[in-house]
Amino acid sequence: MSKDEDVIEASNGKDAVTSEGNSDMEPYVGMEFESEEAAKVFYDAYATHLGFIMRVDAFRRSMRDGKVVWRRLVCNKEGFRKTRPKRSENRKPRAITREGCKAMIVVKKEKSGKWIVTRFVKEHNHPLVVTPANGRRTVFYLKHQCDEKDVKIRELMAELQRERKRSAAYQEQLDMVLREMEEHSNHLSRNIDGIVQSVKEIESKRVAPSNS
């Protein structure tokens, strides 16, 4: 996050963007928006016009009131998927959804309440697919959304399965400990009973001569 902190700049005084969904306009450092949502709407429309999908990424909150004051909007191919060991060679390989793309904008809330673009990276490292002119995400958008949701669902299901196995192992260990504790408790009870019985026998022997 320190890199982004270094590039944060103040507004250059340019007028705020009034057409939040104007996809023909390219973002630029110093561009102003009335709200964080307006910046999202604009970059989303720009992404659709250019041929990629926006993803809402990192943010920072104010230390004073906890509200979001800094937001990064990126290409959905930003970063890389975490590699995991293959479980089976017969499983269908997952679609590549992350390619380390650096395209983004960073917006920051100023004291005036305006949201200012403080960083803009235009270049993508992958082909762009232009969507229809009306700006609606059709098959291209839905396919990528489904791919990402499918990947997320599979990851969550795998994590759930691992947690279930881990929970079952913990339960088995707990049952074993409880059995050992019960056996130890029974053993102590038998020893105590034996000691009490021995004491009683000794006491009875001591008392017997005095009564004769």
From TrEMBL:
Residues 1-23 are annotated as: Disordered. Residues 42-129 form the FAR1 domain. The keyword Glycoprotein does not apply. Residues 146-180 form a coiled coil. Keywords: Coiled coil. The keyword Coiled coil applies. This is Protein FAR1-RELATED SEQUENCE 1 isoform X3.
